[in-house]
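#struct-pred
JK: can someone run the complex with adenosine-5'-triphosphate? inputs below
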Amino acid sequence: MITTAGLARRFGEVTALEGLTLELPEAGVIGLVGPNGSGKSTLIRMLLGLVAPTSGTGHVLGEPITDPERYLGRVGGLVENPAFVPGLSARANLLSLARLRGLPPSRVDEVLRTVGLTGRDREPVKRFSLGMKQRLGIAVALLPDPELLVLDEPTNGLDPSGIVEIRGLLAGLARSGRTVLVSSHLLSEIEAVCDHLVVIRFGHLVYSGPITGLLGRTRQRIEVAPEHDHDLAALHSALSADGWQVEHTGDGRLGVVAEEHQGPDINRAAARGGITLRSLTAVRSSLEEIFLEMTGGNDQDLTAARAAAAEKRA
Ligand SMILES: Nc1ncnc2c1ncn2[C@@H]1O[C@H](COP(=O)(O)OP(=O)(O)OP(=O)(O)O)[C@@H](O)[C@H]1O
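RT: done, structure tokens with the ligand placed:
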């Protein structure tokens, strides 16, 4: 459905994407996630033929991205808030867009139904909530009845109920046999509907595969707390001396890199150090924690990393 090989794009000094090699599956929802500025929009724009690659190749539906006319008729895209005539109804906006693209007016009813705007379609768009406008944007992308739908941050700025609505819509589109590529800077906004996940950071591919594969990367640890808080340092020494990798969690406990079945060994090591444990809990990092570890935390980190890289290049 989508393949890229060594795809790269630079904007002057900034390398928005570098050496991206991907092979994306044919059906379901594919999530493209990464912090702000990691290159998601650049990739989506390249797939839609809006931005040319600096180097590397890409194919969409078997056609090269350097020749988008060959496939754009089968692809629906939403890259930024689409411009609607605010005083006109959703239906009138869609009808004029369908006419412009030479599509039958019957598509308008179909897409209104798909995005759940039937019944509100005669109201002027200026009265629509952000969530409804996003759904209308998706309706526009669906007008040509595309095999592939590419949506850049459709949940951005929506309230929790709006996010849930869009997620439901994406899941429904995938069930109807379309492939949906959807980007977000927040994994939590889309993870529930994604069959496949692409994680990019700083223009580089960090992960591409099923969500379950990502969960397999979890680092298990056991958190322990001494009976008396003042024994924390002594507990740290006792466990380290026994060969365990130990970190302070910052809340009066220690995190020990270990599997759940090693709990009794940790308990015995503490006892040998003369310390009784108050608690011992096996913890598996959440998908969100793995994502943050992979993507390097927050946007400030990313901005700093980009600045450092630019300085190095200069
Ligand atoms: N037209 C452009 N001119 C110059 N720099 C650009 C251009 N488009 C993107 N960039 C830069 O490329 C990098 C990647 O941007 P991109 O918009 O692709 O990231 P993103 O992951 O979509 O982020 P966001 O979620 O903030 O849109 C950023 O540093 C951005 O400033």
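RT: quick notes.
The domain at 2-215 is CATH 3.40.50.300 (Rossmann fold).
The chain has two domains: 2-215, 220-284.
JK: thanks, will look after standup
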